[in-house]
Design a protein that fits this description.
Layout: H1 2-16, H2 19-41, H3 48-72, H4 76-90, H5 99-113, H6 121-132, H7 138-149
C-alpha cells in the first residue's frame, strides 16, 4: 500500500539525513491524516490507496500552482523548493497514463455512453474519474474530453 511506502520512505530519509524527503513525507502524512479525519464524517472510502492517491494528486497540483506564482513573483528559491517537493510526492503516485492512452479511454467511454457533444462532458468525466482517477491527471483529462466531444 502507498501509505506504508510513504512511512518507510520517511524512516529511510530520517536515517540517511535526507531532509527534503523527510520534510515532504511529513507533509504527506499530515495531509493524509487530515483527509482521514474528513472521511470519518462522510462516506467511507472503499480503497485506501485511492484516498492516498487523491491526496497526493491534490498536493502536486497545489505545488505546481505555487511554483507558477513564485516564478511570476521572482522567487526562484521558493519555486525550487516546491519543485523538489513535487519530485518527492510524485515518487509515491502510480504511473500516469499518456495522452494517447487517455484519449483511447475517452473514446471508449464516449462510445459506451453514446456521448455526442459537449453537453455530455459531465457524464464522460464522471465515468472516467470513477474508473481511472488514480492513473489520470483529471485537469489534463478534462481538456482531452472537451476536445473529443467538440
Amino acid at each position: 500500500m502507498i501509505r506504508e511506502d510513504i512511512k518507510a520512505a520517511q524512516i529511510t530519509a530520517m536515517k540517511s539525513g535526507d531532509t527534503q524527503t523527510r520534510d515532504t513525507t511529513r507533509l504527506i502524512i499530515s495531509a493524509i491524516k487530515n483527509r482521514d479525519i474528513e472521511a470519518r464524517t462522510g462516506k467511507a472510502v472503499a480503497d485506501d490507496d485511492a484516498l492516498v492517491v487523491e491526496v497526493l494528486q491534490k498536493m502536486v497540483k497545489q505545488r505546481r500552482e505555487s511554483i507558477e506564482m513564485f516564478e511570476k513573483g521572482g522567487r526562484a528559491e521558493l519555486a525550487a523548493n516546491e519543485a523538489a517537493e513535487v519530485v518527492v510526492i510524485e515518487r509515491f503516485l502510480p504511473a500516469q497514463l499518456s495522452d494517447a492512452e487517455t484519449t483511447a479511454l475517452i473514446e471508449a467511454i464516449k462510445a459506451e455512453l453514446g456521448a455526442t457533444g459537449v453537453k455530455d462532458m459531465g457524464r464522460v468525466m464522471a465515468t472516467l474519474k470513477e474508473r481511472h482517477a488514480s492513473a489520470l491527471d483529471m485537469s489534463k483529462a478534462s481538456g482531452l474530453v472537451k476536445a473529443a466531444l467538440a
